[in-house]
Design brief:
Elements lengths: L14 E8 L1 H4 L21 E10 L5 E2 L4 E3 L8 H12 L4 E7 L19 H18 L4 E9 L14 H15 L7 E4 L7 H4 L1 H17 L3 E4 L19 H19 L21 E8 L1 H4 L21 E10 L4 E2 L4 E3 L11 H8 L6 E8 L5 H4 L12 H17 L4 E9 L8 H21 L7 E5 L6 H4 L3 H11 L3 E5 L14 H17 L3
Helix pairs in contact: 2-7, 4-6, 9-15, 12-14
């Protein structure tokens, strides 16, 4: 009883069926159901979602299979992206949904998932059999349904094979075509998940990850029914001994699923962003605006600082309220969420997280005379090399040109409103992942210095101040031989406009690299104190 019409939102009775397939980061490896409670925006996802049907076959040698259709629950005590996907989608549509999941870690598109000559664990025929059986059961029950979307997250293993890696795009194109043929759905929409560049492989295997991304983008750029879904900005698990990991883990999986939901809901015409306009422009025409530029990676973005945890913090509840007197502009997650012009300083709705800008602004607001505006540019899935003027061979990850243009646009927009603009400084928090990878830690200070120097030239501001904050770097014996704190301090000694802020007394954090809610609030205060101390 397959319905031919999909990707619309005018039918609220037909069951919408979604397919989730891929390898370990689709399975949910290194996640834990018990950790969901650590991430307040996703509280309750450990419980059954009784209105969502679920059938699955997960794993390689030892497969875990459902007995036909069941209700959606976590499987094997791990968190898959289907959990947050289902909750978000069902919150915004009236139609019932169902999910078919077939995933196994360490599998290849070129081999296991090959539609024509599957080898190894032969995932393509296994998935096809699983999907056909699930749909046949719906037919048997006389349940009208339509195949609504295919969520695919895979590619890490293909980058280790000299034949599979350069042919990923060609193989992916064939993969999509064969699914549409075999499921008799020529218009089936695919959502292709980006490989997460925040993991260790995003650093030590940068060229290989980039090669897979080129293949994915080639397909999604050419196929109007295939969409590239960014995931590099989502949370990533913290591993031992250095903090870096290969998998999203619990938080990343929850945000991963939310990304698919957002992409799907946008496809059917639902706009979820809540407008946050400045009802009244806060500055008198002709008055000078002091512009503060905040930039950085995981902790400047606020990966693990949650809105729900702000209210209980003593004396910090004011941070929950918008500040209409401070204009705020932002680009978060490498452009995943961008403000609509200037908004009041406040919570952006970005995964219910926030960065140090809130406490920073509150700390300086009563101590700085005149108008204050804040522009924030972050990408938590980046490394310092992505911010350098020359970038790396992974051209799509190059942030410097976008960052400089963001700053220029911010200045230009304020100027167009009749305001002289004074840039008070660029406030950059040093890349957390860089501190855990020897080659990047070694080059960190020189790279930050190069970014600062070139930005002054490109913005025609030779005395532009750079306030570079740094948390304690990863404490690992082999990495400690590199004195990255001393290296950055030396840059500050030779550059009168480079201020090194040691954020070494932050509240204890749960994991290496990532600062949690109380620490992010304190980080904003530390940056503010550093700014105020260095005013002439």
């Amino acid at each position: 009883m397959l319905s031919a019409v999909a990707q619309t939102n005018d039918d609220h009775q037909t069951l919408r069926v979604f397919i989730f397939a891929g390898q370990s980061n689709m399975v949910g490896s290194d996640s834990k159901v018990t950790d969901i409670k650590r991430f307040p925006p996703y509280a309750g996802l450990e419980e059954a979602q009784n209105k969502t049907l679920f059938t699955y076959c997960i794993g390689r040698e030892n497969k875990t299979r459902s007995k036909g259709w069941e209700v959606l629950v976590p499987i094997n005590n791990i968190v898959g992206p289907e959990l947050s996907f289902a909750r978000k989608v069902t919150k915004h549509i009236k139609a019932p949904i169902a999910i078919i999941k077939v995933a196994a870690g360490g599998t290849h598109l070129g081999g296991d998932w090959n539609p024509d000559e599957p080898i190894g664990f032969k995932m393509y025929p296994l998935a096809l059999e699983t999907i056909r059986a699930a749909l046949a059961d719906l037919d048997k029950r006389k349940i009208k349904y339509r195949l609504e979307g295919f969520m695919w997250h895979q590619g890490e293993n293909d980058m280790f094979n000299k034949d599979y890696m350069p042919n990923y795009g060609k193989n992916l194109k064939n993969f999509l075509a064969k699914w549409r043929r075999d499921l008799k759905t020529p218009e089936l929409k695919f959502y292709i998940g980006e490989l997460c560049t925040k993991t260790i492989w995003g650093m030590d295997l940068r060229p290989r990850m980039y090669a897979i991304s080129l293949g994915q983008r080639a397909v999604t750029n050419a196929d109007p029914r295939a969409e590239y879904v960014p995931t590099s900005h989502v949370g990533a698990e913290i591993g031992r001994p250095v903090g870096l990991h290969y998998h999203y883990g619990t938080l990343g999986q929850l945000q991963h699923g939310e990304n698919y939901a957002t992409a799907y809901l946008r496809t059917i015409g639902l706009k979820l962003d809540r407008p946050r306009p400045l009802k009244k422009w806060p500055y008198k025409k002709g008055s000078t605006v002091k512009l503060f530029i905040l930039a950085g990676h995981r902790n400047m973005e606020g990966e693990r600082a949650f809105v729900q945890e702000l209210k209980p913090l003593k004396g910090k509840s004011a941070l929950l309220k918008d500040v209409p007197g401070i204009a705020f502009k932002y680009s978060l997650g490498g452009g995943y969420k961008v403000s609509k012009g200037w908004e009041p300083l406040g919570l952006t709705g970005y995964y219910d997280t926030f960065g140090p800008e809130l406490s920073f602004a509150h700390s300086i607001a009563t101590k700085v005379k005149g108008n204050i505006a804040i522009a924030k540019f972050t990408h938590s899935g980046s490394q310092i090399i992505d911010w350098t003027p020359e970038g790396s061979m992974a051209k799509s990850r190059h942030l410097y040109p976008k960052f400089i243009q963001f700053v220029k646009d911010s200045i230009g927009e304020l100027s167009a409103k009749g305001h002289p603009v004074e840039i008070e400084g660029i406030f950059y928090h040093v890349g957390e992942n860089d501190m855990s990878f020897h080659p990047y830690r070694k080059e960190a200070a020189a790279r930050v210095q190069a970014i600062a120097n070139q930005s002054r030239k490109d913005l025609a501001l030779p005395k532009l101040k750079w306030f570079v904050s740094q948390q304690p770097p990863t404490h690992v014996e082999r990495l400690n031989k590199l004195d990255v704190v001393g290296d950055i301090a030396k840059v500050a000694e030779t550059d009168p406009h480079f201020i090194h802020l040691k954020a070494f007394n932050l509240p204890p954090q749960e994991k290496m690299l990532v600062i949690t809610t109380e620490g992010i609030v304190r980080l904003g205060e530390v940056i503010a104190e550093g700014y105020l101390k260095n005013q002439k």
